## 1
Amino acid sequence: MNLTSFEIKSIVKIARDNPEMVVEDIIKEIINGYRPKSAIKKIITKIILLFSGKLQKLRPSLNDILLKTCTVHGIKNEKLKEKNRKQNIIRAKQQYCLVAYMFHYTLEDIGNEIGKDHATVSHHKKKALGFIETELDYSIEVARIFSKFPQFESILQDRLTDLISQ
């Protein structure tokens, strides 16, 4: 299955203009601006094959996300890997799980970084989304974590809006 010249030009233009975008964002741009929904599966498969390795390397590592989350909270990164029921540690874990998920890491990979299983990571992510909607301080903390990744900040805000509206 070959890409049409129009599809190639669209992909190259979007990728060149937005080097921080990951595969899913490029797909959204193409779907929203250029193609009918019937072509989505074909385009997704083609783009993933062409770009997944190159574009995914642009995202920060899980360890980098962990370190920056801990910096915002003023705690040592080892604290997130330990069993702990203190509210400030739990908040940091929730926010780490959410931000890492927004960078398209799998729940399993995120959990491996902090010694948790995928179900716990999913729970932390859902709790973080709920608190963002109801607690201003919580939202500010998440925004501070986003600001540690300036090249991704607007993309993270967009993804957060998408997650909340689901």
## 2
Amino acid sequence: MIKSGDRVYPYYNMGQKGRVVRVQRSNVTANAVGGTLAAEFLAEILLDDGQTVVVHRVQDLMREE
């Protein structure tokens, strides 16, 4: 599980490396045939430039080793 303080990057944009500032839970508003979907987790990431904050789904992130 990704947590605050981890260095991460998104799978689909590996140049956006940074540090997780906050992880928050977000409700999903879509409905499926069997019922509602589970909540997802979003991470706010402070990029290495020190000014830009972006938000990505936790499932799209990879921890930097």
## 3
Amino acid sequence: MVMPTRIPTTRSTRWHRAGTVALWTATVIPALSLGLAGVAKLSTHGEWDRLFVSWGYPIWFMFLIGVVEVLGAAGLFVRRTAWLSAYLLAAVMLGAFATLATHPGTHLLRGRQAPMGSTTPAVMFVLLTIVGTVRWRQRRVQARPRQGASADGSLRRYWFPASQGQGVGVTAPDAGTAWFAAKAAVHRLPPGATVSRRYVEDVGLGTLGLADFEAASKQPGVWFPAGTVRPVHLQAAPTPEIARATFVRVDEDGSAHALTAAEAECLATSFDATDGARPAIKRHYDSRWPSGRLEGFLPRSELPAHIPIQPGASSKT
């Protein structure tokens, strides 16, 4: 039995988009500024050579900084090297800040020597540090399985319940990809049907009454509906006795209880897949719902050995 999960809400999606725009803004500004400055340093006909000499640096160092700035600016737009390029350019800006702070005087402004402080490299340093940190964290996250993704990157089956007792079946590497595919398949459902963000992962097709789609569901993409849309019902256990023998209830404080008669009956009841009152089945003991709550029904096989099962009579619900 798997734990129902929910794709991020519209509000979180908007925040994600705003963060993406801010990240790319913080990337483009230093990339253009330092990329153009790097190209200018590689030219033998300019003011940069005189500035570097006045600061006490050799000409070869100017060319080295120019190459680093050009390559670093280009690397900011490559996913695998963005974090490294950002940190490398941030180090260059730190050096520029120190140079201008210890050698107050002139800097290039619109092709001429003009008074300028160390504010510009300081701002660039902050932007590049932010970009480098975010890109590094994204790189680490990408190395882990995404929400609803298998550890080995293989495909998984997702079932998105729809209104009117219908649903959409998708095979994809992660829940996010599956959700976009499910939304695109809404037109295959009867008019007025809507797909829920709440999905069931690795659901058995026999449970859904869709055993005929077993072969199709092994390929990536939308495998259902592909013709007639059927009502969908989910049932945790065939009988109350089996429910009491195979499930426990986990409370918010982490304690585990045997099922009461009412709870066992609930788990043995067939619910419509879109019914919000259907039992909350946890996949793992420490799994939490999108709201952050821990409570729910858990297969006994997933209960840690050190957690005792208390009598059902002490149930809080």
## 4
Amino acid sequence: MTTYSKPPVMPAWGETATPVTDLESPETALGSTAGDAFVKAGWTGTTTPPARQYFNWILNFLANAVRYFMQRGVVSYDAGETYQIDATVLGPDGLLYASLTNGNIGNTPASSPSQWGPIQTVTPTGGDNSANVATTSFVHTAVAGLAPLASPTFTGTPAAPTPATADSTTKVATTAFVHNVAASLLTRYESGELAVLSGTLNQYTVAHGQAAAPFFTKWFLRCKTAELGYSVGDEVDLEDDYGDPANGYRFFANATNLRFMHASSSPVYPSVRNASTGTPTQITGGNWKVVARAAWM
């Protein structure tokens, strides 16, 4: 089959011809009814040659039609034209439509949904990320696994922007926001590591520097060399684990200091419960340090 190339852009035949003198349509010359009949019948067998005006008219008509298609690409809707299924037109609203019926005439596309619908194209394969036209089917498939806007259920590890600490709106509060707010509400203090004392009355005093008594205090023994089932860095809460009832512990706090007193009938280091056996056992002083913590609102 012959493959045709687009013809060059040229003027339409007879576009500057003088009307009536050199170019005239049968409808103009014969009237609407007779002219339509003449056009439908064409030139019949007769010895009288067609007038040059008719030749120029038909060539002008065809040339204008070709130029129109070459310029527009898609024809504009014409209320007087009869369209068949899948005929594509440019509607008065500037949108493309495809005819849904045969014998479709006089139905304005934008207001005739039973006669005109959107043009259709091939649905791209899933995952396509190109300039191909995305059909509604492609979009529905692509978003099928996404969470709805209303009452979404998230999986995995969803993330959100962290609001400013002073924010008091309905924005999502991230874990970082909660930590920041908590940090802004609490003032924390931790002492340095203090040597463990072994007298009969041992007092540990640290100045916290906050000019107010804390609402929370804790004293700990921090393991520095592994023993009694504890590893380096492990901490034992002195308030929760007396270890040996023969040892007396007292804890105090005021607007200036944190204080811990350890009393015993004989000079000994504090005792803790063995992490493996639970048996109260005296620590080795050099293997531990004392640490105090406090907090203020």
